Amino acid sequence: MVEPQRIQRASLSGNEFLTDPRSDELSLLKMGAASDPHSMMVLYRSDGRGDGVRSPNPQLDGFLAVIVFQEMEEFTLHRNRKAIQIPRSVRGSTGLHDLRNTWSSAKHPTYSLNLVFSSAFLGELQPGGGYRGMDLLRDALDYGSRDETLLHLGSALVPAFKEPGKANRLFIDQVFLAASTHLISKHSAQQPLASVRGGLTPWQEKTTKEFLAANVQSNVSLADLANLCDLSPPQFARLFKKSTGTSPYRWFIERRLSLSKLMLESTNDDLAEIALACGFADQSHFTRTFSRIVGLSPAAWRRLQRN
């Protein structure tokens, strides 16, 4: 096998990531998720027309994970000038590419979510040397079996592509981090992560919760919270859950819901005003979130309290 060239670069653009988009639909949700400057989340749809797709040039020391949303026919992938036959992929199949390699293939009808992770970021997900490294991740099959976990995580991101400006940054970061952790856990030496001892220090937990409570209307990111505690986002997410028993995103959403309940019970403000005051994108987003977690719509909950 040709040894792939290691080249550092700042970032990739959507068009560099998947070239020749003339007959394709490319939707870029976010770059820099969970403080990984190389990260990218791209929803990709192609009707199969046009020239082939190929790896970005220069290469990135990282990985591309492909989550197949629509059945994909068998095709030939050329990796480092070697032809590899990729079998038919059903919905939920995943592909994994080491972006230090060069690769190309002919166009074929495709609908997939594509996640880019840098090796440096994935390396932060290995606390205490719980893995032998990423060698097994690099040697993983280009396309493997159906992965229900990645399909679930990827599907949760799809609605955010419709209005990326309104997407909750903490939610996007949390899903990206969960997908990263799943990949490294699944492919890297099949050993469990080192146990997380302790949690946030009292001042870190207090500072984080006060910041979230004071910024309930803001679109907070995982990096914002990690910076408060002088930690990396992966470290912060692990320690926060150890301390509180829940993820930063879930804690933040529950804080917003607590505030919304107070306003529903003590004011006559309409739902649209309460939604914006509590940091939700709009009334529809507020109603969906409230109903899913509380089990009643905001209007029904308000009537119940007043009766």
CATH class of the largest domain: Mainly Beta
Average pLDDT metric: 79
CATH superfamily of the largest domain: Jelly Rolls
Strand content: 15-25%
- Which structural class is indicated by helix and strand composition? alpha+beta
Gross morphology: globular
Number of strands: 10
In CATH, the topology of the largest domain is named Jelly Rolls
Main sheet attributes: strand count, strand direction, barrel closure: 6 strands, antiparallel
Walk across the major sheet and give the strand order: 1-2-9-4-7-10
In the CATH hierarchy, the architecture of the largest domain is Sandwich
In which range does the helix fraction lie?
25-40%
What is the overall number of helices?
Answer: 12
- Stretches with pLDDT under 50, minimum 5 residues: 1-16, 128-133, 189-196
Alpha carbon gap, first and last residue: 72 Å
Rg computed from alpha carbons, rounded to a whole number of angstroms: 21 Å
Order of helices and strands: HEEEEEEEEEHHEHHHHHHHHH
Number of domains: 3
Please tell me about this protein's structure.
This protein is of the alpha+beta class and 307 residues long. It folds into three domains: 14-187, Jelly Rolls (Sandwich), CATH 2.60.120.10; 202-245; 250-306, Arc Repressor Mutant, subunit A (Orthogonal Bundle). The protein has helices spanning 14-17, 119-123, 135-138, 148-157, 169-187, 202-214, 222-228, 233-244, 248-266, 271-277, 283-294, 298-306; strands spanning 24-31, 40-46, 53-54, 62-68, 75-79, 82-86, 93-98, 103-105, 110-118, 143-146. The chain has a six-stranded antiparallel β-sheet. A four-stranded antiparallel β-sheet has the order 3-8-5-6, with no helix packed on it. The chain starts with 13 loop residues before the first helix and ends with a helix.
